[in-house]
Amino acid sequence: MSNSQYTSTHSEWQPRIIAFFCNWCTYTAADLAGVSRLRYAPNIRIIRVMCSGRVDPQFILSAFAKGADGVLIGGCHFGDCHYLNGNHKTFRRFLMLKKMLKEMGIENDRLRLEWISASEGEKVKLVVNDMTKKIKELGPLNLPEKFKEWDKEMDDLEHELTTNLEVQHA
Question: What sign for the dihedral angle of Cα 121, 126, 129, 130?
Fold first, then answer.
C-alpha cells in the first residue's frame, strides 16, 4: 500500500517525531511555548542535549531505525552558541546526513534542522506543526519493515550469486 493510500484510508495514523533540542536555546524556547500555552502538535518527543553539536549522527539513524517518522534538530543561531561553535558542527553533520538519507531513499523532509533562540517559543510551535503536517503527507516511514525487505533482497542476491558460482564451476 502506498503512503498516500495509507494516510487517506488510515486517518488515525499519527507521525512519531524525535526532536534533539539544545538546552540553552531551543529547549528553553519549547519550555516558553509550553508556559505561554502555545499549542503545537503532540507528535514530538523532545530529547534535551546540552548542545546541538553533541547530537551524534548515530542518534538520528537510530531514531529512524527504531520507528521514528521524522527527526528534528534544534540549536542556537550562529553566533549565539553557548559552546561557541557547536552549531557549526551540527550544520556540517546535518548536511552529511541529508546526503546519506537521500541515498537510503528517505525523503528530505523527514530530517530537519532549525535555529531557534530561547525567546522564540512561537517559532517552536510553527516548526513542530509544519513538520508534523509534512510528515503526515509523506506517511509512515516504517524503516524497521524496510530493513526486513532489504535483508530479504540481500539473501536473494547471495543465493543467486552462490547458484551462479556453482553453475560456473560445474
Answer: negative
Per-residue pLDDT of 81-123, as tens digits, reads: 999 999 999 999 999 999 999 999 999 999 999 999 999 999 9
Query: What is the Cα–Cα distance from 29 to 39, expressed in whole angstroms?
Result: 13
Q: How far apart are CA 6 and CA 138, in angstroms?
A: 10
pLDDT in tens, 17-38: 999 999 999 999 999 999 999 9
What would the grid cell of residue 39 be? 499549542
- Please give the model's pTM, rounded to 2 decimal places: 0.83
**Is the Cβ–Cβ distance between 12 and 106 less than 8 Å?**
no
> In the numeric block, which cell numbers belong to residue 91?
550544520
The Cα–Cα gap between 34 and 39 comes to 8
